[in-house]
Amino acid sequence: QVALVESGGGLVQPGGSLRLSCVASGFSFGYYTMAWFRQAPGKEREGVSCVKTGGGITYYADSVKGRFTISRDNAKNTVYLQMNNLKPEDTAVYYCAVGLRTSLMSSDYNTWGQGTQVTVSS
Question: Mind listing the pLDDT tens digit for each residue in 40-58?
Answer without folding.
Answer: 999 999 999 999 998 789 9
